[in-house]
Specification:
mainly beta, five-stranded antiparallel β-sheet
């Protein structure tokens, strides 16, 4: 008998101040990355899909972003090129994910 399936992980990459496209308020937005991994005998082996999104903390609206846009927003939050009025936590490479 072989047991296989998928498991989802949610990583919070950064917190940015952006203008929300839904409510129009300048508020904090969380940049999140969802990774779904294939599991064999409950051991995650490799990623099946990766999706990035920002979520407004004021109204809760979520917007999908591409991987390139997510990297740019993450660099902006870290104070890299393109600097802007972003504040929050810098990206952490060894952050534990939220499990879904």
């Amino acid at each position: 008998m072989i047991i296989f399936g998928t498991k989802g992980y949610l990583y919070q990459l950064a917190i940015l101040t952006l203008v929300c496209s839904q409510c129009g308020n300048p508020s904090a937005h969380t940049l999140k990355k969802r990774v779904t991994k294939f599991t064999l005998f409950f051991v995650p082996l490799f990623p099946v899909s990766t999706k990035c999104a920002t979520q407004c903390t004021f109204c809760g609206a979520e917007s999908k972003v591409t991987a390139e846009q997510a990297e740019q927003l993450q660099a902006q939050a870290a104070g890299g090129p393109g600097g802007g009025q972003a504040y929050g936590q810098p990206p952490q490479q060894h952050q534990q994910p939220y499990q879904q």
